[in-house]
Amino acid sequence: MTTYTAKPTRYDNMSYRRCGNSGLLLPLISLGLWHNFGHVDDFNTSKQLLHTAFDKGITHLDLANNYGPPFGSAEENFGKILKQSFSSYRDELIISSKAGWEMWPGPYGDHGSRKYLIASLDQSLKRMGLDYVDIFYHHRPDPDTPLEESMGALHQIVKQGKALYVGISSYSAEDTLRASQILKDMGTPCLIHQPRYSMMDRWVEDGLLDVLATEGIGAIPFSPLEQGILTEKYLKGIPENSRAAKSTGFLQKDAITPEVISKVQKLHDVAQKRGQSLAQMAISWLLKNDQITSVLVGVSSEKQLLENLGALDNLSFSNSELQEIETILSMK
Q: What is the CATH number of domain 16-226+289-299?
């Protein structure tokens, strides 16, 4: 087995942004392990993706308890790769995990109770072979558990040394404000919020970004390419091997309407004029806002990863470009 040695140039071309009001810097692009790192995937491909990411300055790797499939397998595989390739680089990495969705059977393997969140992180640490994660998230709000209990669990996790920072994901503006204030009162500020956000899914602009700015919380959007819609993949309809062509999954055929394809085609034309692919422009469009700390990307190949990184070559937009994009997105 060839020993991995990180490239000495790994920090030369990546930029880093401060996460909210904290002392932590994150790379403009971070790697999510939601897909392509489970037991159903090729282990060596997963390992090579992580090598390439780190060699390009991507220091933040984002996981969750149920990433796979099967549940837990992304963390298991990551733990093996960490031991084989990155044990001497642990202090150069920001590793995150989450709990909040279904993980194991019974009443204690889902949602937001103290019991579930703390037990889940203990399991995650064991799978990854870690003493602590850098960031631990509550993965989604749980209306049936008092927010004080869920945030109290995050606070306890930090006090126990199992996480350095805590965050939340997919919380509304109102719940984010409450969660932030509860955590502040406990002395463990909320570091970061991970919302779904893209050109085509802009719910965060209706109050959440304002709360994050006021509270000094960083933002790291997931699904920046709208599950592949904001790529060249659907320019001519739905390819047979695409996510939308499968009967299972988050992206279904009925999401790829003629209207959506028309918008994507027009956005693609704007990207071409900018010297970018549509995927690159979609990532740049998010990063044009300094409030966005980092953008989470998921990739299945080194080629995709390098293409996404190419977005960083052009982060500025002219007023006319922004207006043209808004006009396209508002089309019925």
A: 3.20.20.100
